[in-house]
Amino acid sequence: MTVVFDRPKALLDVPTHYCPGCTHGVIHRLVAEVIDELGILDKTIGVAPVGCSVLAYDYFACDMYEAAHGRAPAVATGIKRAVPDSVVFTYQGDGDLAAIGTAEIVHAAARGEKITTIFVNNAIYGMTGGQMAPTTLPGQVTETSPYGRDVKTAGYPIRVSEMISTLDGAVYVERVSVDSVPNIIKAKKAIKKAFEIQLQGLGFSLVEVLSICPTNWGLSPNESVKWLRDNMIPYYPLGVKKDATTGEVK
Amino acid sequence: MADKVLMKGNEAIGEAAIHAGCQCFFGYPITPQTEVAAYMSRRMPKVGRVFLQAESEVAAINMVYGAAGAGVRVMTSSSSPGISLKAEGISYIAGAELPCVIINIVRGGPGLGGIQPAQSDYFQATKGGGHGDYRLVVFAPASVQEMVDLVQDAFDVADKYRNPVMVMGDGMLGQMMEPVEFKERPKKELPEKTWAANGLKGREKHNIINSLFLKPEELEAHNNKLQEKYREIEKNEVRYELYNCDEEMDLVIVSYGTLSRICKNAIKMLKKEGINVGLIRPITLWPYPVEAFDKVIDKTKNGFISVEMSCGQMLEDVQLAVNGRKPVHFYGRSGGMVPTPAEIANKIKGIVGGAK
Ligand SMILES: Cc1ncc(C[n+]2csc(CCOP(=O)(O)OP(=O)(O)O)c2C)c(N)n1
Ligand code: SF4
Ligand SMILES: [Mg+2]
């Protein structure tokens, strides 16, 4: 019998706490498959954020840290500088990375820290029950934007990938989505490339993954996928934003 | 014996850390401790180690969390407003039980305060600073030599107990130059860092650096374990100096850091006038040297006086240690004002009633 589908070694055989239909699980799996394929489980160290993926340290089989809210890139910097031959990744939500942790991510990228960031953008604060995030779309209703995000008072969403791409220390930046099988395959390719950039010692890499939060969007998983496609992708265009290995900057 | 060299306090801190095997230093400029970072930026690359100027104190302390969790010796340095920013990270480091050394060269507060010497971060250092039930070991050296010795001890104590250690001085100590010696130190037996998250490298189970315990029973058990450790530290690590405490005394001064040296001068002045005053100098601010009070309490006529460059922060610990057995007085200046020996002597004469 040939095994066609199995749990990646980099993921532990434990139940996760994610809501049914949440794509955090899909993204975990992609990261784990990449770690397996690159054969780097033994030297990979992951940093979990504060957010729905706070317990990621219990799911990944590599050594793990739990960082304070937004501080994962600084923690990862400390790890990588202390153990330069390790592979260090952060896994962060949009509240974590683009609000409270904006300084840490910008400066880790600017320094060209040889780490990889998986940035999960679901346009909301999932863990705390669905408040407005810096990535919440104009007009989007959340617990703290009950009349829809009003850009006159709450300002505009941040396009993190585009912003990080402007920094010379960032070597590879791509935005992907996990709303469909073809996009999931592309997302995995991007994550693999981001880890390879680190393995080659080239600098900072970031993959922004558009992700769904059925629970706090108040939609079914299917409706959520459609909402992501119709609303998020137009505001957050997919694709490589920067690839310094080819000189590509969009 | 090693040679004596003339060094500025802040630079001596850096060199002491290098002697102690500090692998990584993460800092951010702030007066009056910037020379620590400047010294490390010169020296660390030369000895093949890591210096990094962070984007903020918040980032610096989280870099410390990262490096400490990976099992290397790591230090950061700052002054009062910067330590406030580090408070979040210090709480996480204490919660995750990571060893590291934090230097605070205290300046006057609150707020942006001033840049002159002060001791007004006593509460912050000894009573928390960050959130949660945690303790820092706090060393308070009084000379550059003692700074050199205590910084090195701090790394050992941190590793021994898996606990952050703070070394607290003031701008005077940071800026003054004194001859120092980097003594040969006997190798300490310290526990192996089997908990470090530095890559599996063949290890079967992953290591996790974490301070999150969602189940109340687990968090309480964790807190109880921390408390047990703190009791152990209280038993083993208390340090203090007793000065002129052998005979009957009119009063006992309690004072730490550079200010304790000024107090010693006041004691000498008073002696000439026939007033005999002793000194308890806490070297560890936490654990607080309560036993020192028990040793002198029967020999002091007028009790104790807490002399501080703050508005009565250590006074509370003095009162707790004395526990109503004798009167407790207070003299303090703040904002960067440094008391003179004559000022302190006058205050004491007011209490003990002039020349005998
Ligand atoms: C200093 C601090 N502030 C606030 C919180 C509360 N908090 C926990 S998770 C979270 C938001 C996380 O949202 P995001 O990063 O978007 O992750 P998601 O849950 O959506 O995956 C907040 C504000 C905290 N834990 N720490
Ligand atoms: S709250 Fe949203 S992001 Fe969090 S697990 Fe549930 S669906 Fe996923
Ligand atoms: Mg989110």
From TrEMBL, chain A:
Gene Ontology process terms (BP): cellular respiration
Which GO terms label this protein's molecular function in UniProt? oxidoreductase activity, acting on the aldehyde or oxo group of donors, iron-sulfur protein as acceptor; thiamine pyrophosphate binding
InterPro entries on file: 2-oxoacid:Fd_oxidoreductase (IPR051457), THDP-binding (IPR029061), TPP_enzyme_TPP-bd (IPR011766)
Q: In what residue span(s) does the Thiamine pyrophosphate enzyme TPP-binding domain sit?
A: 60-209
Q: Name the domain of life.
A: Bacteria
What Pfam families does the annotation carry?
TPP_enzyme_C
Q: Which Gene3D superfamilies does the UniProt entry name for this protein? A: 3.40.50.970
Keywords from UniProt, A to Z, are: Oxidoreductase
UniProt-recorded name of the protein: 2-oxoglutarate ferredoxin oxidoreductase subunit beta
- What is the scientific name of the source organism? Caloramator proteoclasticus DSM 10124
Automatic annotation (TrEMBL), chain B:
Q: What is this protein called?
A: 2-oxoglutarate ferredoxin oxidoreductase subunit alpha
The protein's superkingdom reads Bacteria
Q: Which keywords does this Swiss-Prot/TrEMBL entry list?
A: Oxidoreductase
Kindly list the GO molecular function terms attached to this UniProt entry. oxidoreductase activity
Per its UniProt record, what CDD domains does this chain match? TPP_PYR_PFOR_IOR-alpha_like
Q: Which residues form the signal peptide?
A: none
Q: Which Gene3D superfamilies match?
A: 3.40.50.920, 3.40.50.970
Which residue intervals define the domain Pyruvate flavodoxin/ferredoxin oxidoreductase pyrimidine binding in the entry? Answer: 15-232
Q: Which InterPro entries match?
A: 2-oxoacid_oxidoreductase, PFOR_II, Pyrv_Fd/Flavodoxin_OxRdtase_N, THDP-binding, Transketo_C/PFOR_II
Q: Name one Pfam family in it.
A: POR_N
